[in-house]
């Protein structure tokens, strides 16, 4: 995560350093006991739990579908009251299009017969397909707003984050909250680049982006 290439100011870099205190926010890596396959059925007593890959919130995110009850454990993919975080953490531009993955995964669960969703946070979801549609609409609106916010300017990833709509002023964000918001802004920027609506300005450092 290179905040300098994202266009962070020295004051912001100092604020991040003071909060991090030399520690990585990612924590230590862990090794899984077994890698699950998409569409694999995990045998339970008298029933099966199907693995449904839903990358987006994280590259390896999966939901679990209890087929005989039409219930899905949605993890952090679909939540009733919260918009799951979708972010890119390599700046200025990550190869992975996390938002494209997330939107495709939402469309996947929309096609399934699910009577109830049980997320990792909050209350049960009675209409998973409908809620997935709301999340798709939310991100499409953010993409439209961000594209309009460029105007005729050439801006850094940091400035992209500043121009996005948030629940409170950017200047009031805690440094760690700015980091999460920056990653979300980068994910939306990455998707606009994939749609060929925005392009990186050749030779710019820190990297600048502009509408095509």
- Low-confidence parts: none
Tally the helices.
Answer: 6
Query: What is Rg?
Result: 19 Å
CATH fold-level label = Metallo-beta-lactamase, Chain A
Provide a descriptive summary of the structure in words:
- With 212 residues, the protein is an alpha+beta fold.
- It has one domain: Metallo-beta-lactamase, Chain A.
- It is 37% helix and 15% strand.
- It is built from 6 helices and 7 strands, in the order H-H-E-E-E-E-H-E-H-H-H-E-E.
- It has a 5-stranded mixed sheet, with no helix packed on it. Strands 6-7 form a two-stranded antiparallel sheet.
- Helix 4 packs across helix 6 and helix 5 packs across helix 6.
- It is globular and about 60 Å long.
- The protein starts with a helix and ends with a strand.
- 29% of the residues are buried.
């Amino acid at each position: 995560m290179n905040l300098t290439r994202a266009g962070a100011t020295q004051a912001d870099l100092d604020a991040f350093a003071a909060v991090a205190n030399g520690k990585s926010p990612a924590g230590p890596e862990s090794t899984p006991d077994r890698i699950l396959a998409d569409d694999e059925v995990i045998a339970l007593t008298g029933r099966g739990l199907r693995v449904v890959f839903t990358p987006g919130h994280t590259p390896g995110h999966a939901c679990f579908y209890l087929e005989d009850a039409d219930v899905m454990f949605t993890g952090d993919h679909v939540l009733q009251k919260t918009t799951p975080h979708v972010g890119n953490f390599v700046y200025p531009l990550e190869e992975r299009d996390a938002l494209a993955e997330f939107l495709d995964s939402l469309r996947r669960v929309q096609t399934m017969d699910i009577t109830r969703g049980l997320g990792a946070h909050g209350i049960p979801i009675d209409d998973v397909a409908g809620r997935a549609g709301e999340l798709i609409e939310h991100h499409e609106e953010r993409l439209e707003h961000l594209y309009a916010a460029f105007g005729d300017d050439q801006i850094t990833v940091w400035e992209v984050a500043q121009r996005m709509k948030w629940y409170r002023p950017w200047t009031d964000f805690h440094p760690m909250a700015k980091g999460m918001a920056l990653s979300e802004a980068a994910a939306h920027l990455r998707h606009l680049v994939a749609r060929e609506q925005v392009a990186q300005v050749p030779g710019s450092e820190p990297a600048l982006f502009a509408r095509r």
